[in-house]
Amino acid sequence: MSTPQPDASRPSGAGADENRVTPDGLLHARTGTDVSPEDLVLAAGRDVTEANLEWARRKLADEGPAALDKLLP
Question: How far apart are CA 50 and CA 63, in angstroms?
Fold first, then answer.
């Protein structure tokens, strides 16, 4: 059984910086292009069917492009 080794990529004494949380706004990386219903269906892990496309159209109408940001990290 091996013992864990320190991570060489981390600087020693990083301290409190290791526990900081990245703001949600920095986690999302949309390209600025329009979001299609197909994009939303695929991001949700669903099959592209007419019922799922209709769900995506309603979600985009209600939430706009932010609907995609809510599904993706």
Answer: 20
pLDDT tens readout for residues 9-49: 555 555 555 677 767 655 555 556 788 999 999 999 999 99
- Position 58 scores a pLDDT of 98
Within 10 angstroms of residue 39's Cβ, the number of other Cβ atoms is 19
**Alpha carbons 5 and 8: distance in angstroms, whole number:** 8
pTM, full prediction: 0.56
Interatomic CA distance for residues 8 and 14, integer angstroms: 12
Asked if residue 12 lies in contact with residue 32, where contact means CB atoms within 8 angstroms, the answer is no
Contact 69, 43 (CB under 8 A): no
